[in-house]
Design goal:
Elements (H helix, E strand, L loop, with lengths): L5 E3 L2 E8 L2 E8 L2 E3 L2 H8 L1 H32 L5 H28 L8 H34 L10 H24 L3 E4 L4 E4 L5 H39 L8 H35 L12 H13 L2 H12 L1 H22 L2 H19 L10
Antiparallel strand pairs: 1-4, 2-3, 5-6
Helix pairs in contact: 2-3, 2-8, 2-9, 3-4, 3-5, 3-9, 4-5, 4-6, 6-7, 7-8, 7-9, 9-10
Length: about 375
């Protein structure tokens, strides 16, 4: 995302003597002109306190949750079905996003001053969008997989195989990465002499917006948000409709319908809360741009966009709900873990002395019957 900036300055005449002939060169002094509103935003509490604080909370909660999800999917769930493969990749995308969040947190807390170099700015900026679009594509894959499994269970057996799921995940990673390559190629840093800071993906020249970002971000919105949203909503609508036609007497039908409804609601919340506001503001902002800087004079829309980007990071916390309601293997593993914890709590709740006395009586009884000395039981 970019902020408005114009470059202009007075002309300067330079005289050069070439072979006895004086040649006049007209150059210009480049000066950056940024609105007062933009400067206030870059130094205001929204971008230097509110946004990094929100990112900090997201990082603290999402990183351990998604790391546990990756470990659970990798080590505990065997054999791994197609849904679990998609969710493992989704958890990996969230972990990658959370690992890079400290750079943005440091940037905003430091007064929007980037100190990690131009290359790292490109990587972090591209990874931000990479995670968002990879998450969208993987959630779409999960919805299509659920559609095939519920509506076409027999005809889709050849499609719903682990190898093809892995191929689909690799394709989604490549597509989402390809969509962010321009952000890696183009320099995202810019030094503002007025504030003596170096911004990262906050300020770009207007001519670059006109020739580059307008068509780029509109294409991203259409290919990586609008189309996946339509596919996802259509898939879950078809799933719910198919499950609603199952007779009530069929064993487990009500539970499957409930899980499908909750899963659909969770996915829609992720799209509506995390992705829709960001893309709506992005498209509206660039569709208004007609080749001049007039449409970019309002910084309030850009501030709203950054806040929506914060909301977009909430998908890292909502994705575990997708894991639970979208994978029967995940539900069984979690239930098994909870039962083990409950059993350990019950055992630890028993009186040690009572357990010791019962073991002592058993030892005495066996000793009298077998007439063999049995060593005492030692309970830690």
């Amino acid at each position: 995302m970019v902020q408005e900036m114009s470059i202009n300055g007075p002309a300067v005449l330079n005289e050069t003597n070439i072979n006895g002939t004086w040649v006049v060169n007209v150059t210009s002094i480049k000066r950056v002109k940024i609105s007062e509103e933009a400067l206030l935003f870059l130094t205001g509490s929204v971008s230097t306190i509110l946004i990094p604080s929100f990112y900090t909370l997201i990082c603290l909660f999402s990183l351990p949750i998604n790391i546990c999800a990756v470990v659970a999917f990798t080590l505990r769930i065997k054999p791994m079905k197609t849904a679990a493969i998609y969710m493992l990749n989704l958890a990996c995308a969230d972990v990658l996003f959370a690992v890079l969040l400290p750079f943005k947190i440091s940037y905003h807390f430091g007064g929007n001053n980037w100190i990690f170099g131009s290359l790292m700015c490109r990587v972090v900026t591209a990874a931000f969008y990479w995670n968002m679009y990879c998450s969208v594509l993987l959630i779409t894959c999960i919805s299509v997989d659920r559609l095939l499994g519920v509506v076409y269970p027999l005809n889709s057996l050849s499609w719903r195989r682990p190898k093809k799921a892995i191929m689909a995940c690799v394709t989604m990673w490549i597509l989402s990465f390809a969509g962010t390559v321009p952000l890696v190629i183009d320099d995202q840093t810019f030094h503002l002499s007025q504030l003596n800071i170096t911004t990262c993906h906050n300020v770009q020249p207007v001519h670059e917006i006109m020739l580059y970002y307008k068509f780029y971000f509109i294409a991203l919105c259409c290919a990586f948000f609008i189309l996946p949203l339509l596919i996802t909503v259509g898939s879950y609508t078809r799933v719910i409709w198919a499950l609603s036609r199952v007779p009530r007497g069929v064993l487990g039908s009500s539970g499957r319908t409930t899980r499908a409804v909750v899963m659909t609601g969770t996915v829609l919340v992720i799209f509506v809360l995390c992705f829709t506001p960001t893309h709506c503001l992005l498209m509206a902002r660039y569709l208004q741009f007609n080749g001049g800087a007039e449409a970019f004079k309002e910084t309030s829309s850009y501030a709203a966009y950054l806040v929506c980007m914060c909301l977009g990071s909430l998908n890292c916390l909502l994705d575990p709900l997708v894991y639970y309601f979208g994978s029967s293997q995940c539900r069984k593993q979690l239930s098994s873990t909870l039962r083990c914890e409950k059993l350990l709590e019950d055992i630890s709740g028993h009186s040690i002395s009572g357990l010791s006395s019962r073991l002592t009586r058993m030892r005495t009884t066996r000793s009298s019957d077998l007439q063999v000395d049995v060593p005492p039981v030692c309970i830690p």
